[in-house]
């Protein structure tokens, strides 16, 4: 038992090309996104370290500014005691008042750092004590007690350079400098991983894109190469590679290609079978008119084996009288492209010539003619016999019948003397029979002329009333004999573009039929109306109507349909067929509307002028 593939198993080849293309872009983008996240984390940490470093520098700056003001205050004391400058005393007052305010910035910077808050508080107390001593010097100097001021100045100097004062600022400095060292080291240490992740991410991203592109392109190229190779093998008739298992677009294309190849192989087999069993001779000839392939039907129709004709010149099978025409025909097919048909006689093995209709197609790519020869020998013989019959009817039957009809009409009119009553009755019967024979012959000749394409219409603009009145005049005598009235409704003043004689013939036939089926004393009405397509002529009788089952065959040849009363009327059965041919030749249409017991209305439409 054949194992069924595991449908749940994942395979990259089951993904569509679109999905694989998206993956080809998505994987490098994912790597780049992850790298961006890592770098963002490093950047946040670096910014935090840089912020801490900047904070430490700001604290050191504030401490330095306080120390600078302290030393400036001392310098002012020295200047005053030495030079007794009044402005120095004013500077001392200003700076002594500013120093406490200088701690506001430092307090704000260390407010979230408990250790530094304690250090700053101790430093602030030390500076406050220093300022108290400075105030005592100022008071002693103001009172003129220089000796005591000198003692206090020495004490202030000792206090300033003493371990207690320096230690308080040093604690603040040392802690921030220690932090700066750590932060600087951390920033330096972070540079290495940042560089590593940048280069690693870029390299991995590039490698993924290159590998993905190479694999995708290689797989695509490989499978397209397989399809191209299969195409070449198919053209050479060699077995193709097995179908791909992939379910993407390339795999589906390969599946469709294999299915098409199978169907093509079946079609070739069917075509070969058709060619080998065809009743017609199917063959090909090259541009030099040499046979390159011939179907087996050549043996039955031409008397030649297929192998016997290969490499043989075509003209050796064509009678000399037809060779030039055949050559010209093949040249036209080659120049005009497409397919053409032509009657070409063929000399068979027994020396007899048979008539064939050739359908020929020229292939520019293969520089060859592809031909199908259909035997029409019997058809041509029948056509010649038919033509001989038509000629015989036209000359050997119609002419004597017309002469007989004319003679009988003259006898009935007493040209050759009066006949007895019995003789007149007999002559009328014979005259009617002759008239029917002449009408039959004329109908046969009309039908033959239409079939052979020899019916030529003489189209011109004709008034509608002229056609209707002419038709009624031709049928009025027959209608009077039948006791039927002919009427015409109000006729529109329009022109139709027709062959007047032929349209009158159509309308005359329809009127004769209507009169035949109308009871005595009734009327047949001719009406004309305008339609979107043209002009509609209609002949309505008050007869028994036509059964619906018979209406579809009314316009067939030699068809005589029973009326609604079950009776047939005399006629050739060609009148309506001739009407249909004439109307269709005009590009119009013809039909009937009828119900048993309600009469019939025959109509036809032609183009307006």
Key features of this structure:
single chain; 609 residues; alpha+beta; Four Helix Bundle (Hemerythrin (Met), subunit A); Beta-Lactamase; 4 domains; 5-stranded antiparallel beta sheet; 5-stranded mixed beta sheet; 15 helices; 12 strands; 13% strand; elongated; disordered N terminus
Q: Can you tell me about this structure?
A:
This protein is an alpha+beta fold and 609 residues long. It folds into 4 domains: 17-201, Four Helix Bundle (Hemerythrin (Met), subunit A) (Up-down Bundle); 278-375, PAS domain (Beta-Lactamase); 381-450; 456-606, Heat Shock Protein 90 (2-Layer Sandwich), CATH 3.30.565. 63% of the residues lie in helices and 13% in strands. It contains 15 helices and 12 strands. The strands form 3 sheets. Strands 2-1-5-4-3 form a 5-stranded antiparallel beta sheet, with helices on both faces. Helix 3 (114-143) packs antiparallel against helix 4 (146-160).
Task: Describe the secondary-structure layout.
Elements lengths: L16 H67 L2 H25 L3 H30 L2 H15 L2 H74 L12 H29 L3 E6 L4 E4 L2 H5 L4 H4 L10 H17 L2 E9 L5 E11 L4 E8 L1 H36 L8 H31 L8 E4 H19 L2 E4 L6 E4 L1 H18 L5 E8 L4 E6 L7 H4 L23 H11 L3 E6 L5 E7 L3
Parallel strand pairs: 7-9
Antiparallel strand pairs: 1-2, 1-5, 3-4, 4-5, 6-8, 9-10, 10-12, 11-12
Helix pairs in contact: 1-2, 1-5, 2-3, 3-4, 3-5, 5-6, 10-11, 11-15, 12-13, 13-15
């Amino acid at each position: 038992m054949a194992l069924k593939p595991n449908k749940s198993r994942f395979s990259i080849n089951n993904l569509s090309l679109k999905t694989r293309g998206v993956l080809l872009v998505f994987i490098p983008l994912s790597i780049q996104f992850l790298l961006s996240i890592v770098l963002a984390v490093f950047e946040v940490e670096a910014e935090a370290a840089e912020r801490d470093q900047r904070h430490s520098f700001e604290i050191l700056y504030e401490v330095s500014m306080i120390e600078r003001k302290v030393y400036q205050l001392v310098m002012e004391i020295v200047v005053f005691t030495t030079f007794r400058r009044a402005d120095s005393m004013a500077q001392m007052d200003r700076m002594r008042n500013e120093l406490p305010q200088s701690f506001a910035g430092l307090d704000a910077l260390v407010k979230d750092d408990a250790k530094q808050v304690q250090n700053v508080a101790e430093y602030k107390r030390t500076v406050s004590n220093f300022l108290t001593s400075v105030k005592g010097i100022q008071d002693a100097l103001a009172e003129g007690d220089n000796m005591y001021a000198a003692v206090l100045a020495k004490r202030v100097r000792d206090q300033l350079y003493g371990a207690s004062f320096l230690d308080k600022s040093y604690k603040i400095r040392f802690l921030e400098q220690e932090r700066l060292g750590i932060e600087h080291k951390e920033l330096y240490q972070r540079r290495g991983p940042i560089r590593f992740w940048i280069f690693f991410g870029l390299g991995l991203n590039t490698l993924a894109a290159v590998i993905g592109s190479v694999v995708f392109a290689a797989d695509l190229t490989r499978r397209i190469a397989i399809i191209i190779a299969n195409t070449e093998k198919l053209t050479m008739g060699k077995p193709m590679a097995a179908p791909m298992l992939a379910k993407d677009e390339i795999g589906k294309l390969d599946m469709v290609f294999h299915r098409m190849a199978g169907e093509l192989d079946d079609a070739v087999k069917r075509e070969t079978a058709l060619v080998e069993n065809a009743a017609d001779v199917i063959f090909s000839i090259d541009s030099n008119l040499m046979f390159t392939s011939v179907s087996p039907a050549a043996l039955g129709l031409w008397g030649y084996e297929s192998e016997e004709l290969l490499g043989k010149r075509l003209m050796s099978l064509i009678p000399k009288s037809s060779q030039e025409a055949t050559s010209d025909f093949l040249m036209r097919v080659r120049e005009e492209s497409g397919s053409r048909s032509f009657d070409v006689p063929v000399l068979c093995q027994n020396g007899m010539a048979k008539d064939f209709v050739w359908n020929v197609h020229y292939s520019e790519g293969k520089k060859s003619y592809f031909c199908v020869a259909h035997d029409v020998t019997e058809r041509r013989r029948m056509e010649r016999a038919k033509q001989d019959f038509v000629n015989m009817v036209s000359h050997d039957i119609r002419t004597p019948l017309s002469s007989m009809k004319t003679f009988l009409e003259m006898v009935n009119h007493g040209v050759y003397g009066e006949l007895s009553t019995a003789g007149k009755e007999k002559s009328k019967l014979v005259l009617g029979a002759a008239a029917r024979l002449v009408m039959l012959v004329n109908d046969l000749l009309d039908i033959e002329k239409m079939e052979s394409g020899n019916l030529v219409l003489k189209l011109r603009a004709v008034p509608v009333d002229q056609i209707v009145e002419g038709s009624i005049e031709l049928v009025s005598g027959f209608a009077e004999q039948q006791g039927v009235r002919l009427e015409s409704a109000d006729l529109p003043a329009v022109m139709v573009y027709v062959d007047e004689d032929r349209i009158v013939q159509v309308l005359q036939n329809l009127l004769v039929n209507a009169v035949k089926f109308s009871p005595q004393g009734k009327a047949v009405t001719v009406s004309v109306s305008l339609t979107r397509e043209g002009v509609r002529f209609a002949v309505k009788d008050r007869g028994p109507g036509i059964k619906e089952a018979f209406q579809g065959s009314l316009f067939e040849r030699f068809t005589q349909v029973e009326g609604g009363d079950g009776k047939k009327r005399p006629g050739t059965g060609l009148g309506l067929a001739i009407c249909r041919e004439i109307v269709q030749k005009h590009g119009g249409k013809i039909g009937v509307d009828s119900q048993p017991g309600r009469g019939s209305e025959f109509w036809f439409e032609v183009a307006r002028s």
